[in-house]
Known about the structure:
By secondary structure, the protein is mainly α.
Amino acid sequence: MAKPIMAKATAVWLVDNTTLTFKQVADFCELHELEVQGIADGDVAAGVKGFDPIANNQLTAEEIEKAEKDPNHKLVLKFNAAAVGEEKRRGPRYTPLSKRQDRPASILWLVKFHPELTDGQISKLVGTTKPTIQALRDRTHWNISNIQPIDPVALGLCKQSELDAAVQKANAKKAREGEVMSDDERRKLVSTEQSLGTEAEPRMPSSIVGLETFSLTDDREEKEEEAVPDADTFFNLPNNDTDEDED
């Protein structure tokens, strides 16, 4: 059932102006029954002004009267053609400001462990743009050296069910197109617990990439062990063969 606008204010009005049961009000406004009881006791929504659902074309007086006579009757929201499709989400997912700094880490995790996902799917999961995803795929992101892949579910950027649905959809599309997932791609598919338990990858400055095997010392010198002098060499000093001049 569709949810009325200003649900809590509507519940306040229904509690104050009707004899509906707490359950009827809770079901209609999609609230908990105890929360409606708190509104009636004055413990919840204190200072909230009631929102008349009749005047705002959400309920009819006949519907309320019918529900007051029958406690088992559930209120039905009045159909409003202008509100059709309003709850459908359009565009990228909204990400709170406090979590936006975590998006690059989650994108890098999705690119690494779920390469079958398209840029559009990743954009919908974590609420980002395709240029950002491409920069992380190509490792040309300005902060790539400081980004570690982290599961977006653990960061709270998406739900596990949403991620699983996106992965299943991507795999089904590959199967329809005749593409088979390689063994390397299968090994990359890990659970949330496994990804959080993996150790951080060692970072290497971009200025020394390719010099991992370069050494300034000779390997032969490293293999030779220096002889450690014993105590006698320090006390057995050489004899002085020169005689002192006699007066």
